[in-house]
Amino acid sequence: MIDDPNYKETRRTRMRDFRILYILLSVVFMAGCSSRSLRNFYTPGDTVEEDKYAMSRFIPSAFIVPEKLETKEFRLRMLSIDDVDRDFEAVTSSSDYLSKVWPETGWPNGLTLRQNLIDLGWHEKEFQNRTSFAYTMVTLDESKVLGCVYFFPPTKAGYDVEIFMWVRASELAKGLDQRLFDVVQSWTDSEWPFKNPAYPGRLISWEDWKRLPGL
Fold this sequence. Notes:
By secondary structure, the chain is α+β, with helices and mostly antiparallel strands. The protein is 40% helix and 14% strand.
């Protein structure tokens, strides 16, 4: 038996990295072998059903997806596996509020760091595949996750994108949620190709949204 503490720490690090690699390879495998389910949007906590979400041409092939959006108080950029710890802290510290962002899904109750890593890997792969776009909202020094913004393919007739967003609960009283919403609306109108964006739970109530005909 080797008692060298440096050896033990190196071994633990390698085992952790191997587990992370295994999870990420699983995500990539799904992306390559199940393009139908991967291309269909599902909200956090939702269960993917084969025919629940219709496939569609989400964005023009020539459209250059924005890499980021920066204001004087925050930055939006692609959500990735590198954000797993800070994203997990932001989500779990705001779970009571976030459970109302997507009502009836149960998210993020019971979320684990492992499951969050899987979710972020899924979001990152979808971004690469241009099938949905998840942006993390961070402070300008990248020290804290403030929220997220999501662009998903439409599931209701009459819309060409569904846009969701949230900010951490500690920022609600400071008005950050409304400022983010204003910025995203302006950004969508000026930089994205969508003509009829939907903001479920914001510009249309969830009750009215559920009554709309699906695609």
